[in-house]
């Protein structure tokens, strides 16, 4: 039987147990009067927790996305897994348990689906999330930019130093101060039979390369080892990680535990600022990234970057691109040493392409198919930027992989999870460069979900530089030495913004090749 609206309202009021409700409220009032302040506070806290849980669990716009029970209430377990470097396993596990779209926190969603890449990363609609503010060490920069207009403006200035012409012009100096200098250091280790940490050597080499190509200064760390730049850079990165996940720490006075990190960051600032100031007043100008950025002009001939803006761009680039390249080279060497047949085949290709090990140019390497396949496979299997790059769903929400995701949710696709997805890759846990040497259509297909340099409007600006550096480094080292790794080293991938070996080093012995 249908009731008319006034009748239904009347019935509702008649049946509402107002008397009983009133009695309950009175009882509560009496209890509140008798409660001690402690009991009152405890009751308030409990009431707030209950309200919070009900809102998060039952009313939250993300309640239909599957995830662990705790992830429905708080982001804390996710933040803890990121700070402990355990998040990669979690992304893969969440994919297996909950499907392509999984909830990792109260407003955090991980997606493992190539179809999502275009939606999330191909336009500026999905902006970078607030964690990027932690990279504003000395002011906003191209890495941390969240506002699309600001990013476009910076891109116009900064991209002048990533042009093919500039990268090619840098090759001779880069090769001399990078791979060639490292080879001469390793030559000494080989002669003395010394075991050394190749991870550290690659980092020192990379700082030397940045010194010459960016600042026009040759630190010669590979041989002299006394410049504190590597320590400044490492500590600045560590501080960045802490601030990313505990942003409130940025607002309180310097905690004792991090005072040396803040000092290192200040030293890095002084170093970069002094280099810029000296260059602005120098009579002879180098041809390097610093000069390109100082000279960068807009359409009306105006300077695009002030000195302070130059500091923020160059410092963040120094820290981030330093580790990305050296760690990628490290993982490639590690995977080659663990796969002797692949190593043998690569060495065979290099020996034929480079009869003179002292005359190596990128021109001779760029078309070597096996070298290309090895680098591709190592960046698939061990992508150093393995984490999800977080973006914010725009107002109004959107449909991703068959699920509605509301506005303001943080979403990402982790390169590691995508590169290890069993539905996409045949035998994803195996390092197999041959997968990149199949028929063109097959390779073009897998390239669609190969994202070590990210994809879309915020993908890596320095890819050309990175590929050249990797080719030159691997070819130079493998053409001259055989390497043997010490046994029982912990090379499990662990995350600290970038993917590093859990053991923190990779000890090897080198022998000169005939
Ligand atoms: C193997 C080495 C490298 C890897 C794996 C790598 C990877 C990446 C990734 C994944 C991003 C996107 C970051 C994000 O969205 O948060 C990125 C951005 C960027 N990379 Fe690289 N990178 C490498 C080397 C370099 C080098 C050598 C340079 C500079 C010479 C460089 C310059 C940049 C810049 C400027 C951006 C920001 C682009 C933008 O937001 O428009 N990268 N890189």
Q: Spatial order of the strands in the main sheet? A: 1-2-8-5-3
Spell out which ligands are present: protoporphyrin IX containing FE
Figure out the total of helices: 20
Query: Which spans of ≥5 residues are poorly predicted at pLDDT below 50?
Result: none
Question: Roughly how many Å apart are the termini?
Answer: 97 Å
Rounded average pLDDT? 91
What's the helical proportion of residues?
40-55%
CATH homologous superfamily descriptor: Cytochrome P450
Which architecture name does CATH use?
A: Orthogonal Bundle
Return the structural class: alpha+beta
Shape: globular
Strand elements, count? 12
What's the CATH class label? Mainly Alpha
- Biggest pleated-sheet summary: 5 strands, mixed
Number of separate structural domains: 1
Strand content: 5-15%
What does the radius of gyration come to? 28 Å
Which fold does the CATH topology refer to? Cytochrome p450
């Amino acid at each position: 039987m249908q009731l008319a609206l006034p009748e239904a309202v009347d019935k509702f009021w008649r049946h509402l147990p107002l008397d009983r409700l009133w009695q309950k409220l009175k009882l509560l009032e009496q209890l509140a009067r008798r409660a001690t302040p402690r009991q009152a506070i405890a009751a308030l806290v409990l009431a707030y927790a209950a309200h919070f849980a009900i809102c998060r669990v039952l009313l939250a716009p993300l309640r239909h996305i599957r995830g662990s029970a705790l992830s429905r209430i708080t982001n804390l377990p996710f933040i803890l897994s990121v700070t402990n470097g355990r998040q990669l396993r979690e992304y893969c596990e969440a994919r297996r348990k909950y499907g392509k779209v999984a909830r990792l926190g109260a407003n955090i969603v991980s997606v493992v689906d190539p179809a999502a890449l275009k939606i999330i990363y191909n336009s500026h609609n999905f902006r970078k999330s607030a964690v990027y503010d932690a990279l504003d060490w000395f002011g906003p920069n191209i890495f941390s930019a969240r506002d699309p207009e600001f990013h476009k403006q910076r891109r116009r200035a900064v991209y002048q130093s990533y042009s093919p012409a500039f990268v090619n012009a840098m090759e001779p100096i880069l090769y001399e101060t990078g791979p060639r200098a490292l080879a001469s250091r390793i030559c000494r280790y080989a002669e003395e039979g010394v075991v050394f940490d190749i991870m550290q050597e690659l980092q020192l080499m990379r700082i030397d390369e940045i010194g010459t190509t960016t600042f026009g200064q040759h630190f010669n760390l590979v041989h002299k080892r006394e410049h504190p730049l590597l320590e400044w850079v490492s500590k600045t990165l560590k501080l960045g990680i802490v601030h990313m996940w505990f942003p409130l720490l940025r607002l309180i006075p310097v905690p004792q535990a991090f005072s040396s990190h803040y000092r290192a960051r200040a030293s890095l600032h002084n170093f970069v600022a002094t280099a810029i100031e000296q260059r602005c007043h120098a009579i002879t100008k180098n041809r390097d990234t610093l000069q390109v950025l100082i000279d960068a002009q807009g359409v009306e001939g105006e300077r695009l970057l002030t000195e302070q803006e130059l500091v923020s761009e160059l410092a963040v680039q120094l820290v981030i691109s330093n580790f990305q390249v050296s760690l990628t080279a490290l993982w490639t060497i590690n995977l080659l040493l663990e796969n002797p047949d692949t190593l043998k085949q690569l060495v065979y290709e290099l020996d034929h392409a480079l009869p003179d090990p002292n005359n190596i140019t990128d021109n001779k390497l760029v078309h070597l198919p096996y070298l290309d396949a090895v680098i591709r496979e190592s960046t698939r299997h061990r992508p150093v930027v393995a984490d999800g790059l977080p973006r914010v769903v725009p107002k109004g929400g959107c449909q991703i992989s068959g699920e509605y995701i509301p506005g303001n949710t943080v979403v990402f696709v982790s390169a590691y999870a995508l590169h290890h997805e069993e539905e996409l890759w045949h035998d994803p846990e195996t390092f197999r460069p041959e997968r990149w040497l199949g028929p063109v259509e097959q390779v073009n297909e897998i390239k669609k979900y190969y994202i070590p340099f990210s994809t879309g409007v915020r993908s890596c600006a320095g890819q050309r530089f990175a590929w050249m550096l990797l080719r030159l480094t691997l070819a130079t080292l493998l053409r001259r030495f055989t390497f043997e790794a010490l046994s029982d080293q912990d090379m499990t991938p662990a995350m600290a913004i970038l993917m590093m070996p859990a053991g923190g080093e990779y000890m090897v012995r080198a022998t000169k090749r005939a």
